[in-house]
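New to this. Explain the following:
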Amino acid sequence: MKLRITSIILLLLFTGYTAFTMSIAQQSLLSFGYQLISSPDTAQVIFDLYIMAFLAMVWMYDDCKRLGKSNLYFLPFALLTLVFVSIGPLLYLALKPNTEASKI
C-alpha cells in the first residue's frame, strides 16, 4: 500500500512538472532530445536513463504476464515509458492490483 501511495504522489508531481515544462518549452520534444544526445556527456545520461526504462519495461511485461494481463494492457505503459520514461512505470505501479507479494 505504501508503494501505491508513493507511486501516485510521484506520478502526480512528475506528470504535473512535465506538463508545465512542456507548456513553456521553446522547442519540440524531438528537438530537445536531439540536443541532449548531440553531446557525449548528456548522451551518456540519456543512454543510462533508457537502459533503466528498458529494464522497467521488461519488469512490467513479466509482471503483466504473471498477473494474467494481455499485451494490450501492457502497451500503454510501454509507450509512456518510451516517451516520458518515469511516467509509464509510475502509472503501472499506481494501477497495479494488490497481491500478496506486492504488500511487502
Summary: The chain has one domain: 2-103. The first helix runs from residue 2 to 24. The mean pLDDT is 90.
